[in-house]
TrEMBL record:
Keywords: ATP-binding, Membrane, Nucleotide-binding, Transmembrane, Transmembrane helix. The keyword Transmembrane applies. This is MsbA. One of its GO terms (cellular component) is plasma membrane. It is found in: Cell membrane. It is a multi-pass membrane protein. The chain crosses the membrane at residues 31-55, 67-88, 157-187, 263-284. GO terms for molecular function: ABC-type transporter activity; ATP binding; ATP hydrolysis activity; ATPase-coupled lipid transmembrane transporter activity. Residues 357-595 form the ABC transporter domain. InterPro entries: AAA+_ATPase, ABC1_TM_dom, ABC1_TM_sf, ABC_transporter-like_ATP-bd, P-loop_NTPase, Type_1_exporter. The gene is msbA.
Length: 613
């Protein structure tokens, strides 16, 4: 699988990327950026000109009506500009949020489309958590900050240049002081932003444990173990540990920020000292008029704020850009991985006859696994055959089902259905051939009906029939709204929780509703009581009629309902045949069977002894 790049993209490289991610972003920059620059310039210049104008009018002993008209006119003009500023700010904010939400959505969609193995990879999960937090997860993330910081940087940089040029009209020394102090403050600001990023990086190693703690502590299913084993203290310690890490990092960031701001204040003092001193000197020596003095003086007062703003905003922009890079690396990687996925295009029409599945010299290793889980494995599930797959824990039985459904991809070898390589079949079409019952049940926040049909547009009669076949009718009838009852309380306050066995039956109903040509049952009886288990075995005969089926079970007794048994050991098919054949030819299978049957026999004989007594 593709490695995630560590590439750094500059602001100029990220701008076109933004454009690709979000249409309309380029227009927003092209039209609204000049607008906001002009408005800001207008507001600043008019604000500086008002006192100067007043001084001039008063000096010329202008009458009150003229003064009032001038002031009202200026007030209205300023008001209009300020209103324009509010409109543009609101627009920018909305634009920024919509770009961010778009990436947020893309992140979720990408994660759900990358290969199953990648999604389960701890490193990928950590990168995604980091990408979400820094890249586009909230208003303070890279994308949340980038747009506003870009606009305000350009706006304030332009303004300070115009200020310096205008003040150059009084003395070029003032312009020089503005430029020099801004440049001097620039480097500490940038170094501070680098420091902040580096500190944040030290916390990135913590993403996986952090997201695990957050996620697992609030999972309903974990609630009882957390209480039973007093894990609340453990969780609290973890939370405190993360808070401590954040506190230490933030403290050093704030310390550095304090020094940078102090330096900036000192430079402002120098600039104002030079500027105000020169203006007073020029006014006293009558090189500039009183109204000019007032204008320059007011303008110089705003330079401090503008200078600070341009540096802060540029620092924010660079920080946001670095944060965006974190997000972009993940999104670009996900795009590449999705593109590189073997996306079969065909949707073969296999007709209605049962399908034949062939594993041909298949080898598979998990991405973070040291050795292959399956090693050069070959077997055939003939059309209509009921095959049992048995083997010790960790032998690779579930892995075989995942490979068959295309959720995992073999390192070597091919898997075919009716002679067609599954890699050439479109994933959606491929998954339609399977009705699986997984080892772990996955109940989604939806109604019983939804959880059986896995669509909101379900056929209630068909759902009820599947529920009846899975022996769940009475349990569902006892629920407050029957098949319309919400399962889980995550989204619905009136949701209910089914028992482990009922949930497993629900999963069987889901497989029955799907009515696909290949049935995959991975330990479907683990949570069932003896009666339900026995009923399922009986039922299995009917369920599997006309289908190809693979039944995984640790209870070797269940294999008698199958036509053939595959015994898997050390990543290979160690033996294949009927129960009696395997007893004869595989000592390991025989040992496994006798170890299990010993307990059944003992149980039986003690029951018989009890009955005799
Ligand atoms: N996502 C994964 N990443 C790495 N290794 C994995 C992953 N899933 C399973 N494995 C490893 O692959 C091997 C086979 O696992 P698999 O779940 O296929 O076994 P199994 O025969 O179904 O076991 P069981 O009978 O316990 O359900 C095990 O050693 C397991 O640790």
């Amino acid at each position: 699988m593709e490695k995630m790049t560590e590439k750094h993209f500059s602001i100029w490289q990220n701008l076109p990327w933004f454009k690709v991610q979000r249409h309309g972003f380029a227009d927003a920059v092209r039209w609204w950026l000049p607008a906001i620059v002009v408005i800001q310039l207008g507001v600043t210049l008019i604000s500086a000109a008002v006192p100067a104008l007043l001084v001039r009018l008063l000096g010329a002993r202008t009458g009150l009506p003229t003064l009032l008209v001038a002031m009202i006119g200026i007030g209205l003009g300023l008001g209009c500009l300020q209103f324009g500023q509010v409109v543009v700010d609101a627009f920018m904010q909305q634009k920024s949020v919509s770009v961010r939400l778009e990436m947020f959505t893309k992140d979720g969609a990408d994660y759900l489309h990358i290969p199953f193995t990648a999604a389960a990879d701890a490193q990928v999960r950590a990168k995604r958590a980091e990408s979400m937090t820094y890249g586009y997860g909230g208003d303070t993330s890279g994308v949340g900050v980038f747009y506003g910081a870009l606009v305000h940087t350009v706006q304030n940089a332009f303004l300070i240049l115009v200020d310096a040029l205008i003040l150059g009209g009084a003395s070029w020394w003032i312009s020089a002081a503005i430029v020099a102090t801004t440049v001097l403050a620039f480097y500490p600001q940038q170094s501070f932003q680098r420091f902040r990023r580096a500190k944040q990086k030290t916390m990135e190693d913590q993403w996986n444990p952090r997201s695990y703690v957050q996620h697992s502590s609030f999972q309903e299913e974990n609630g009882k173990d957390i209480r039973l084993y007093h894990m609340a203290d453990w969780y609290q310690q973890k939370y405190e540990h993360f808070v401590d890490l954040d506190t230490v990092a933030n403290r050093s960031i704030e310390r550095r920020r304090f020094w940078v701001r102090s330096l900036s204040a000192l430079l402002t003092l120098v600039r104002n000292g030079v500027g105000y001193g020169l203006l007073v000197f020029l006014a006293v020596n009558q090189h500039i008029s009183l109204s000019q003095f007032t204008f320059y003086f007011t303008l110089l007062t705003t330079v401090g704020t503008t200078g600070e703003a341009v540096l802060t905003q540029y620092g924010l922009l660079r920080g946001a850009n670095a944060d965006i890079n974190t997000g972009r690396r993940f999104l670009d990687w996900a795009d590449d991985v999705i593109k590189a996925m073997p996306q079969g295009k065909t949707t073969p029409n296999f007709g209605t006859a049962p399908l034949t599945v062939v594993f041909d010299h298949v080898t598979f290793t998990y991405p973070d696994g040291a050795a292959p889980v399956l090693n050069d494995i070959s077997f055939t599930l003939h059309g209509g055959e009921r095959v049992a797959l048995v083997g010790l824990n960790g032998a690779g039985k579930t892995t075989i089902t995942m490979l068959m459904m295309g959720l995992l991809t073999p390192d070597k070898g091919t898997i075919t259905i009716n002679g067609v390589d599954i890699q050439t079949i479109s994933p959606a079409a491929l998954r339609h051939y399977f009705a699986p019952v997984f080892q772990e049940s996955t109940v989604f926040a939806g109604t019983v009906g939804y959880n059986v049909a896995m669509t909101h547009d379900y056929d209630p009669a068909k759902v009820k029939a599947a529920i009846a076949e899975a022996d769940l009718t009475d349990a569902i009838a006892a629920l407050p709204h029957g098949i319309k009852t919400e399962l889980t309380t995550y989204l619905h306050d009136d949701g209910v929780t089914l028992s482990g066995g009922q949930t497993q039956k629900l999963m069987i109903a889901r497989a029955l509703y799907r009515d696909a040509p290949i049935l995959l049952l991975d330990e479907p009886t683990a949570a069932l009581d003896a009666l339900a288990e026995s009923a399922l075995y009986q039922h299995y005969q009917k369920m599997a009629t006309g289908k190809t089926s693979l039944f995984i079970s640790h209870r070797l007794a269940s294999t008698r309902f199958s036509d053939r048994i595959l015994f898997i050991q050390h990543g290979q098919i160690a033996a294949s045949g009927s129960h009696d054949e395997l007893l004869a030819k595989s000592p390991e299978y025989a040992e496994l069977y006798h170890t299990q049957s010993q307990y059944y026999d003992e149980d039986q004989s003690s029951e018989e002894a009890a009955q005799d007594a």
